Amino acid sequence: MNKRNRKRLRWQIPFLFLLIIGTVYIIRQQRSQPYQKDTGFIFGTVYHITYQNDKDLQTGIDEALHEVDASLSPFNPQSIITQVNQNKTVKLNKMFTDVFSLAEEVSSETDGAFDITVAPLVNTWGFGFKKGKAPAPAIVDSLKSFVGFNKVKLINGKIVKQDPRVMLDCSGIAKGYGCDVVADFLRKNGIKNFIVEIGGEIVANGIDQKRVPWHIGVTKPTDDSLNTNQEIETILNVTDIAMATSGNYRNFYYKGGRKFAHTIDPHTGYPVQHSLLSSTVLAKNCATADAYATAFMVLGVNGAKAILRKHPELMVYFIYADDKGKLKEWYSPGLKDKIADDQLNTVQKQHHGRTKSL
Asked: Which residues contact 257 (CB under 8 A, 6 or more apart)?
């Protein structure tokens, strides 16, 4: 070794030593930093948020979620969407326009299977099922005249309706969007390890308390009307991804001895005639996952596969009933290495399937 190389080595060794010491310090500091667990109520459901940080940020989280509520909740009499539905002049904010634009995009990509104007039909059929009687065809036809994603547009910052009776309902995308808003809030506060769950919709980032990817349970569709026995179908190990599930697990109807979910097709105005019971979608953001999960419940397995061929960035896990009424599953090939069914029995014993984020 010549003199020049020996001199360079003398400089490099202290630098590498300091680099190793600094890396060890950062890792130890990260491991010693606690995980906060916040729970609250928003959008008519419960949220659970776990994140690694020295301080509890629930106040900021709640403020962010209430801003979403003030934009998109049809149950909030002062919200932007309520005023739009009442045909009042209202200034649209970025949250509202972002969600409307995404809803319009997914509606176009799914040929209207996802439709934020379908609420009147959903409400009418829901009431009919409770009474054990389907709504009259004349009522369905009258509602269809002002249901359709192409009957409303965002033009120059204003909502323009073809018919003033058009109503917007973002329930098929708002929870997912809320998860994205909280995730962005946490990232802006320098938090890398977190999981956000609102009513079953999830954004997972980084690693959990055990320094491994987050474990997410996919709930098995059951006839449990009281929601007391949420058995887990499978477990996914995920990180840096969003996940949403659509499927009314506790409201089925039977036809010809087969089980169907209460999902209304915006095109026909009637319940779908396929056997897909649960649609889980993984995407880069939760609003997108939420919207496509809803659309796939309308399209069914075969229809959803056609959409997936155009959108390879999406991954799905479907649960459906076969011709004999038995539950079957189909999932994207990209999910194979994320499925951790070897942990299923242990997780079910520990958590009894009460939550998706395990």
From this structure: 325
Q: By C-alpha distance, which of 355, 65, 348, 311 is closest to 185?
A: 65
**Helix ranges restricted to H, 285-337:** 286-310
Q: What is 323-352 written as a DSSP string?
A: TTS-EEEEE-GGGGGGB-GGGHHHHHHHHT
Of 246, 243, 245, 278, residue with least CA distance to 260: 278
Nearest one of 155, 189, 138, 149 to 172, comparing CA atoms = 149
Using a 10 angstrom Cβ sphere, with 0-12 exposed, 13-18 middle and 19 or more buried, the burial of residue 58 is middle
Burial classification of residue 20, based on how many CB atoms lie within 10 Å of its CB (0-12 exposed, 13-18 middle, 19 or more buried): exposed
Q: Residue written as tokens 């829901």?
A: 126
* Sign of torsion over alpha carbons 281, 282, 284, 285: positive
Q: Are 241 and 345 in contact (CB under 8 A)?
A: no
DSSP 171-222: TTTHHHHHHHHHHHHHHHTT--SEEEEETTEEEEES--TTSSPEEEEEEPP-
123 secondary structure, DSSP code? H
Q: What is the pLDDT of residues 119-164, one digit of tens each?
A: 899 888 875 455 557 789 999 999 999 999 999 999 999 999 999 9
* Gap between the Cα atoms of 214 and 221, Å rounded: 22
pLDDT band at 323 (very low <50, low <70, confident <90, very high): confident
Rg of the chain over all Cα atoms, to the nearest angstrom = 24
Distance (Å, rounded) from C-alpha 328 to C-alpha 138? 37
**CA separation for the pair 309, 286 (Å, rounded):** 20
Structure tokens at 331: 């999932």
DSSP string, 76-111: STTSHHHHHHTT------HHHHHHHHHHHHHHHHTT
Strand residue runs (E) in 247-300: 252-255, 258-261, 276-283
**Cα separation of 46 and 67, whole Å?**
17
Task: State pLDDT tens for residues 61-75.
Answer: 999 999 999 999 999
Evaluate if pTM is beyond 0.70: yes
First to last CA, the chain: 56
